[in-house]
Amino acid sequence: MWSVKGFKQFLRMRKQEQELTAFAIGINSSVDITQDKHVIFFDFDVCDQKKVEKAIIEAQQFWALTDCYLFSTTHGFHGIIFHSIVPYSRLRMIIEYTDLVDNMFKYVSKFYNYKTIRVAGKYKEKDIHFVKIIKGVRKPTSEEWELGELKRMEHQSMIGEKY
User: Fold this and answer.
1) Has this prediction a pTM greater than 0.85?
2) What are the extents of the domains in the chain?
3) DSSP per position, the chain
């Protein structure tokens, strides 16, 4: 049986837990704040993996992009191209061109000079899981590889899953 004091403490802790899960933690696309260099993020609110892969492959072929890392989420997929470093204006064009990308993700791009993608915090359970690498149409340059690997390691440490 609980005491009144213990029950009140439980309710306070429960409220704090609910407040914390209301926030989402993310990383941004910028790899160099002194220059306009970004990795490419996609947010798909579509649960059909084949359709998402097709949309990514079309973007890779049209824009000559490198490998895309695909992650499943509760309501769709995230695609991240770590090793194609582009200016933000190009990143916005790529997102706008790519089929099935979430409309709000596209819309918000107009108001910031970077993209952000969620890595944790929206749900109680960890919901972002690595699915596969979709091969790109080109190899990254040495600079793209170096900058992309730093961003990939940052993302990997935040989702807590090796890929």
Assistant:
1) no
2) 23-159
3) ---HHHHHHHHHHHHHHHHHHTS-EEEESEEETTTTEEEEEEEE----HHHHHHHHHHHHHHHT---EEEEEETTEEEEEEEEEEE-HHHHHHHHHHSTTB-HHHHHHGGG-SS-EEEEE-SSSS---EEEEEE--SSPPPHHHHHHHHHHHHHHHHHHT---
